[in-house]
Amino acid sequence: MFRTPALLAPLLALLLPATALAAPCSDTGGQYEAWKPVIAAEAQAQGVGPRGIDALMASSYSKSTIAADRNQKSFRYSLEKFLQVRGADAIISQGRKRKAKNPDLYAALEAQYGVPAGILLAIHGMETGFGGFMGDTNVVSAIATLSYDCRRSDFFTPHLIAALKLVDAGTITPQTQGAKHGELGHTQFLPGNALDYGVDGNGDGRLDLADLTDALASTANFLRQKGWRPGKGYQEGEPNFAVIEQWNAATVYQQAIALMAARIDG
């Protein structure tokens, strides 16, 4: 049994000195419940408020997230195999149709951020099949599980803090669903990237990555802020190819996005 976060936080502040706040990781889920109040104190020290802490304490260890994290086989394929498995021809075909159907949106995004339609459409198609499937896993539980897991705890803990701050802000809820690694919306933003680079593309006063315009504008903003140079090429050896790496570190993914984007734009 655990105290409510409102009672828990002051107790933790007394019991845990500032130098001992770093939460330990584990390779099994057996200590997840004991870990939550420790990471909660760390999150509170980094500015997470009551709603975010409540979401963390309500989270559960996600076995499906761990299974997915240990089974990312497609990134080890050859480029030809990767394009086949990920349905590149269908993405290109659909991407061209979507660009032709809504040219003003993509032109406006390129005018503002310098990122061409092909890149945005290739990412959108690759990540969620153009919004066809944006995930069925609780975002807070997924990110918390990966923060708790030792494999990449240092990478995912800042994303956990960001996810809790997104809950505080009302951008997501404790029930928000995403991909197995906690990615959000049409183009699958990790929470830290959503917090840092998400923009209100449709002008309704809030960030909603399940909204297509917000998601595409946020993706374009991310790439621009990571160094995208308007008007420059994005194939291997060209200035913008390295920026695609900021979206996904797998070389075969970067190559696929560049090739598909060129065919969509062409």
From TrEMBL:
Signal sequence annotation: 1-22
UniProt xrefs under PANTHER family: LYTIC MUREIN TRANSGLYCOSYLASE, MEMBRANE-BOUND LYTIC MUREIN TRANSGLYCOSYLASE B
A Pfam family matched in the record: SLT_2
Keywords assigned by UniProt, alphabetized: Signal
InterPro entries membership: EF_Hand_1_Ca_BS (IPR018247), Lysozyme-like_dom_sf (IPR023346), MltB-like (IPR043426), SLT_2 (IPR031304)
Record carries keyword NAD: no
Tagged with keyword Signal: yes
Protein name: Lytic murein transglycosylase
UniProt domain Transglycosylase SLT: residue ranges: 33-234
Stretches of the chain forming a coiled coil according to its record: none
Organism in which the protein naturally occurs: Paragemmobacter amnigenus
